[in-house]
Write a structure and sequence with these properties.
This protein is an all-alpha fold. The chain is about 40% helix and about 0% strand. Pfam families: SusD_RagB.
């Protein structure tokens, strides 16, 4: 990580998130990071992201059928 002048907790977190984004570019981790840090609704709103639905993926129908009723579908699907 390059040197940072972050003086507050928020500024340091922003610097770390930026560095993680640069280091892991094209690795497919950004979506998970955005959901985990609660930033997905803000950052991805212009792409149609809906909070409360798009944080989880749907459970495949064959997995639902094979579970014999143990699974319930994720909300919104």
């Amino acid at each position: 990580m390059r040197r940072t002048t972050a003086a507050t907790q928020g500024a340091l977190r922003t610097a770390i998130w930026h560095e993680r984004r640069v280091e892991l570019a094209m690795e497919g981790d950004r979506f998970v990071d955005l959901v985990r840090t609660g930033q997905a609704a803000t950052v991805l709103a212009s792409y149609g992201f809906k909070a409360g639905k798009n944080e989880l993926f749907p459970i495949p129908l064959d997995a639902m059928n094979a579970s014999l009723g143990l699974f319930t579908q994720n909300p919104g699907y």
